Amino acid sequence: MLLLQTVSLQDKHNLVSSYGSETVFYYLYLIITFFAIGAISIILYSLILGTIKAKREKRLNDLRQRYALFFAEWVLQDDDEDGYEQKKTPESYSLLLTDKDTTNAFCRNVLKEQILLLHKNILGTEAKRLRNYYKALGFPSAAYKQLKSKSKYAVIEALTELKQMDIAESYAQIAPLITHKDADIATAAFCSAVQISLPDAIHALHQPWILSDWQQHLMHNALAQVPNNDLPNFEQWLHHPSETVVLFAVRMINTFNQTPPTTQLLTLLNQTPTQTLQIALVKTLCSLGEPNVVQPLIDFYEQHINQTAICTEIINQLQWLPYPDTIQFLQQQLLVDNVVLQKASANTLAHINRHVLINVQNHLDTQNVVLHQIIKAALYATKAA
Amino acid sequence: MTFQNVLDILLQFFEFGIFFYCITVMGSYLVIGYLSARQVKRYIKDRNSTDYNQLLSSPLLPKIAIIAPAYNEQVTIVDNIRSLLSIHYSNLTVIVVNDGSKDNTLAAAIENYNLQKIDYYYHNAVPTKAVRGVYQSTNPAFKNLLVIDKENGGKADAINVGINIADADYFACIDVDCIIESDSFLKMVKPIMQSTNKLMVAVGGIVWLTNESDIEQGRLIQIKSPNAFIPRMQVLEYFRAFLLGRTAWSSVNGLLLISGAFGLFHRQTVLTVGGYNHKTVGEDMELVMRMHRHLLENKIPYAVGYVPEPLCWTEAPSDYTVLGKQRHRWARGTVECLMIHKKMFFNPTYKFLGLVSYPYWLFVEWLAPFAEAGGLIFVLVFALLGFINWHFFFLMVILVYVFAIFISQFAILVQVQTYARYKNLTDLRKLIVTALVEPIRYHPRTVYWSLKGNYDLMRGKNVGWGNMTRAGFATPNKK
């Protein structure tokens, strides 16, 4: 640490003489005492905390192991629908749960954690039994209480828990949170609601949301659990006032292989200035595989020739549209003055039709070393594939 | 004005100036401590409510390329590539750049991963030394591995080659000898995916030390506090730097440095600003500062994120010679970056970075060793002249010592309270005791290395990177 401040000069105009030695020393002693006591307290607290954490972890591991064994036996039992009854029949269990397991907060949390973990991995009647057991232990009411917590993380945790356990009765508690002002809570509520009441949850998408990629990922994940036939037509959100909702809709159209009219997507492509949305639209349009999309995409490409990112994406995605127009266009792009576009064109052309690319290579001026190398690499890559 | 008057003014300057400088530095450490504790607490809550594994199947996951420059890494290269390939991320390419190694680094990689040279067009978007070959594995299990062999040009040049080749939205620059936690990138992309109205141009994470820890097959089994004194000191330093310092700066959007050992960058932005600067040894800090400048000057909304969790583990130097060279290089790097970007100093164009972060780096990170050394000379001279008020002197020494311990213990406490990666109580005790001796036994050396770095830079002398002897991560270290 700094040594300079250790200086004080006798008989000179300095801190001690300016403010009086008693005042300066008094404050110095005070500060030193404060930091010394602070440091000692921190050391003691660290040691106590370290000890507690070590013990707690050991206890946690023991409990996890015990509960895992308990549930392993529990699942194998062919018992009544209300799994709670099993807890009361000691003779059927070698790893019996005690009252402490269901009343002590720490044990309850570990027990709940094990129930959630098991519920993820089982289906059908076993899952139903486990859900009943979860309800019988009073976990849903605790989760509802947690939904009213001031901590957003506690609310999210409760929402996730209810979603994981698929508690249909919880919809009334979850629904108001879909419009919560905190985006994370609203998304978690949406994801939980999707599982319980899809139409109501989907309706929430009509609100003016600004969806980050993270939220879109969570929502996509929730929707992916729903059978494709039950999913809404995402086309209805293509004119949503929030561009991020439009982006989400375009992405979901692509992900769930929906087929909206291409004219609608093309209009949107020409209207939006946002590159992320443009890229998503290009991907979705090309995935539809319709030949009438090629020319409008080429026109769009030519209008945005200075924007390498979007142009590269168009060239890459054209591999899904292997038509004569595409091939002719890609051949032209091999000769543009942009190495990135040349590389992308060669790769796409190699994917669509290697022979065309080999033909281009054969007729290429030997002076054009760069293009020769690009084509060679593209042909190698597709050969390897 | 008599000589006596001049002397008095000088003395007062030192007396008051240095005293208030010291108070400011101490105050800033306290603020940093508070901000980091708050930020880490918030992060842990957020992390605990996130299921990162769900990301693995997400179609929205950004494409990432890991760029690992390797120079004379034949001992560790095979295990380190294995460690990189085992990272949990579905949209990932691993690019290892052999920077003209003089040993068998390339041969070891070729042999163990069935690599073969491929036809590849290398586009020099950022100018680099010549690429001798691009290798890909014939084994489909390693299809996302690319090994580049190039002429030696230094770390920055090697990373630039990787940036040119990477076909990804983001690239992660890591040291090949690092161990990356398997879910690191899932955690690193969360801030990127959460950003709605700003371009997330870089994300950093905590780097901690593995010396004497148990490692198997490139995977960390158990973290241990080193028995050796030098690495143990550095464990504490890393606690303070990464857990307190960078976490706090990131919480106020003032981060000027993302460690060269582990960081995630937006590839297009890095290409726009011209890639890594190979003329400075502080290339990691310089790149971040250049990106900040470019984005602020062009009024592009952006953010730099930080994940305050240990995601990357590395081996620290275990002897004074190598450590001295490392610190010498860090000191040089700091000065070079501050000089290159001196325009930022108290310049409102650069907002918080120009008005707070840059001045902090200048007055605290760079100036502190000079202030300490100057103070020592000052004390010695005036002690000889009999001017020293010894009572006050010793009180100040005690204050500085107690404060140093306070900050180190606070960093240890934050570690215990949050990640508690050093699970063994003996490890914790060792670290606590280390913090008591560090200000006396270790810190003076870091001051010396820092001054030497500055002095050598002025003389134009370059001491190089220094050869670090690594134990390798292949087998468990001796207990």
Give a short overview.
By secondary structure, chain A is an all-alpha fold. Chain A has helices at residues 15-19, 21-76, 84-87, 99-103, 105-121, 124-136, 139-147, 152-165, 171-174, 183-196, 198-203, 213-223, 243-255, 262-271, 275-288, 294-303, 308-317, 324-333, 339-352, 354-362, 369-384.
Mind sketching the topology for me?
The complex is a heterodimer of chains A (385) and B (479).
Chain A: H1 15-19, H2 21-76, H3 84-87, H4 99-103, H5 105-121, H6 124-136, H7 139-147, H8 152-165, H9 171-174, H10 183-196, H11 198-203, H12 213-223, H13 243-255, H14 262-271, H15 275-288, H16 294-303, H17 308-317, H18 324-333, H19 339-352, H20 354-362, H21 369-384
Helix pairs in contact in A: 2-5, 5-6, 7-8, 8-10, 10-12, 13-15, 14-15, 15-17, 17-19, 18-19, 19-20, 19-21, 20-21
Chain B: H1 3-48, E1 64-70, H2 77-85, E2 92-99, H3 105-112, E3 115-118, E4 131-137, E5 145-150, H4 155-165, E6 170-174, E7 179-180, H5 184-194, E8 199-209, E9 214-216, E10 219-222, H6 229-251, E11 262-266, H7 267-273, H8 283-297, E12 302-314, H9 320-340, H10 351-384, H11 390-417, H12 425-441, H13 443-459
Parallel strand pairs in B: 1-2, 1-6, 2-5, 8-12
Antiparallel strand pairs in B: 3-4, 4-5, 6-11, 7-12, 8-11, 9-10
Helix pairs in contact in B: 1-6, 1-11, 6-11, 6-12, 8-9, 9-10, 9-13, 10-13, 11-12
